[in-house]
């Protein structure tokens, strides 16, 4: 899998994960890869982080995200995810990506990715849930909690929660996108023919307009 082509990126923000009373949540491309090329519904109760990210990023007003990438990664590590070292983005010149993943109790692979700009500000975030080997089609209801949780973890309770209905109604679509303030949000499948992995992604305009990374 690979990052959504930035021109199609529209990530999905849909949750209020910042309530301090919940349960853990948890991407699937390997740490060196990025999610499928697109910005990618049932409606269970909104999950919340048992421990929200530590602090709001100083550049929140300019990046559009509520928390710093390092705080989000640290939170996911407390939930059992293993985070890889940051590496250059293969999609946007000057940007860096860090992925974290875990295998959940049901045997599905959860992945989150955080892409930062040259100044270290969060510019793009994605999360995915990959079904077990026997799940050629992943039920949207199984992915709603971790994917909406990611939106809450990156966008905050109010902005993430406002997207919950949208995410619940489009999760499982081959591709769907919307906007949330200055951010583009999308949800999508691995491909038009492969619904074994579901994604949500959020990106700001600076990332979407960044020049492509040079080919190796």
Please supply descriptive tags for the structure shown above:
globular, 8-stranded antiparallel sheet, single chain, 216 residues, alpha+beta
Secondary-structure topology with pairs:
Layout: H1 60-63, H2 69-78, E1 82-83, E2 87-88, E3 96-103, E4 109-116, E5 122-130, H3 140-155, H4 157-162, H5 164-170, E6 175-180, E7 183-189, E8 197-204, H6 205-208
Antiparallel strand pairs: 1-3, 2-3, 3-4, 4-5, 5-8, 6-7, 7-8
What's a quick, concise take on this entry?
With about 220 residues, this protein is of the alpha+beta class. Helices cover about 20% and strands about 25% of the residues. The protein has one domain.
What does this structure look like?
By secondary structure, the protein is α+β, with helices and mostly antiparallel strands. The chain has one domain. Helices cover 22% and strands 23% of the residues. The protein is built from six helices and eight strands; from the N terminus they run ααβββββαααβββα. The longest helix is centred in the last third of the chain and has 16 residues.
Regarding quaternary structure, how should these chains be classified? single chain
The proportion of residues forming helix, as a percent range, comes to 10-25%
Which sequence of SSEs, written as H and E, runs from N to C?
A: HHEEEEEHHHEEEH
Round the mean pLDDT to the nearest integer and report it.
78
Going by helix content, strand content and strand pairing, the class is alpha+beta
Return the domain count. 1
Record field, number of beta strands:
8
Shape: globular
Which stretches of 5+ consecutive residues score pLDDT under 50?
Answer: 5-61
* C-alpha-based Rg, rounded: 15 Å
Cα end-to-end separation: 17 Å
Beta-strand percentage?
A: 15-25%
Number of helices: 6
Largest sheet: 8 strands, antiparallel
